[in-house]
Amino acid sequence: xxxxxxxxAEYVEDLRRITAEETDEKAIFQRLAPLxxxxxxxxxxxxxxxxxxxxxxxxxxxxxxxxDDHTNAVFxxxxxxxxxxxxxxxxxxAVVAGIEGEEKETMWTRVDDASTPGHAExxxxxxxxxxxxxxxxxxxxxxxxxxxxxxxxxxxxHTYGKHVNFTDRSQFDPEAKTASPYIVTVD
Length: 187
Ligand SMILES: [Fe+2]
Hints:
Elements: H1 8-21, H2 25-40, E1 59-65, E2 71-79, E3 87-88, E4 94-100, E5 103-110, E6 122-130, E7 135-138, E8 143-148, E9 154-162, E10 170-173, E11 178-181
Antiparallel strand pairs: 1-2, 2-9, 3-10, 4-7, 4-9, 5-6, 5-8, 10-11
Helix pairs in contact: 1-2
The structure holds fe (ii) ion.
């Protein structure tokens, strides 16, 4: 059997230590990003079940870890070709590391004052392609959209301060100028 140099269990141990010692998101990112990159580029721990994608939502959301209170949440996401997410926030911080394939990440900025429930005005920001070993750190409040732009399934490692189905986060339709709750189907 191949020895795995860095395991999900070791990553979770490191994540727990870091979030116990740091409250500042920048400090968490500084310490966690290289470890997320290390796990995402470690071969051997990903199995066939992680490749399963939910056809209805366009991606598979596989739980690798969460605490009883939903913090320190780690997921492997598998994306069908030409599928992705609407613009969304997370209601917490997020660290995303590319495992394989090509995912386009589009950043959005909210420009209204969020005073009208269900209404949101967004302007488009930068776009970047996430590939194996690249890491994107998103502070609480950041808004992005992710799209698999390749012909194959893409995979990425997502770590959140808290499981995103428990943070009251939103999805946005920039054209219709709407905001609504965003709950994902977890595999
Ligand atoms: Fe996201």
